[in-house]
Amino acid sequence: MTKHNQTYRWVLYALFTAIIILQNFIPLLGYIPIGPLNLTIIHVTVIVAALVLGPGGGGIVGGIWGLITFVRAFVWPTSPLATIVFINPLVSVLPRILIGVVAGYTFRWLAHKGSSQYWALSIAGLLGSLTNTLLVLGQIYLFYRGQSQILYQIDLEALFPYLLGVVATNGIPEAIIGALVSPLIAKPLLSRGKKR
Question: Which stretches are transmembrane (predicted)?
Fold first, then answer.
């Protein structure tokens, strides 16, 4: 990698990090409140980073989001649930890292198999988004099902249906956003990168 290309990558890391920070702290830019939960759109930034910088770069940018989520759970939570579930780094950090890893490797694999660039980007965006949703909610169920009365004021039998409801109301729209928006942003950045 030439020094010029390395500098370009560092600029992209800085850009994606700045966007993640802004999305975390400017209302409605990264989280759209819907009742007690938030529809997250920050995952699109992580997915785009993975598509442009590769799985490792996406993992780093996702890790930055995860660390911010972890710290915010203590000092400025995004929801009442965040103070309970996001203080666990397996819930707040690991899924964010894996968004980038899954999206990046999915794109590489599909591109290698000869899929059209748009479809490869779109499917990578969809799977990256679902990775976050399924890991966060799956780990909430795994780690906190014994505390469901505290978390949701519902009994243990109702926790699983509740989490499925969150998948339907938040996870599916987030996945659709990831699949539709990620290619629109990543494709021009990839074209620009190839010209360099």
Answer: 12-32, 44-68, 80-107, 119-142, 162-186
* Cβ atoms 125, 182 nearer than 8 A: yes
Q: How far is CA 65 from CA 32, 36, 73, 98, 169, in A?
A: 16, 21, 12, 11, 22
Close Cβ partners of 154 (under 8 Å, ≥ 6 residues apart): 148, 162
Q: Are 22 and 29 in contact (CB under 8 A)?
A: yes
Question: What is the value of pTM for the model shown?
Answer: 0.88
Going by C-alpha positions, the residue among 80, 75, 183, 90 that lies closest to residue 129 is: 183
| Domains identified in the chain and CATH numbers | 3-195 (1.10.1760.20)
Integer Cα distance of 11 and 126 in angstroms: 26
Q: Residues 136-174: pLDDT tens digits?
A: 888 888 887 766 555 555 555 666 666 677 666 678 888
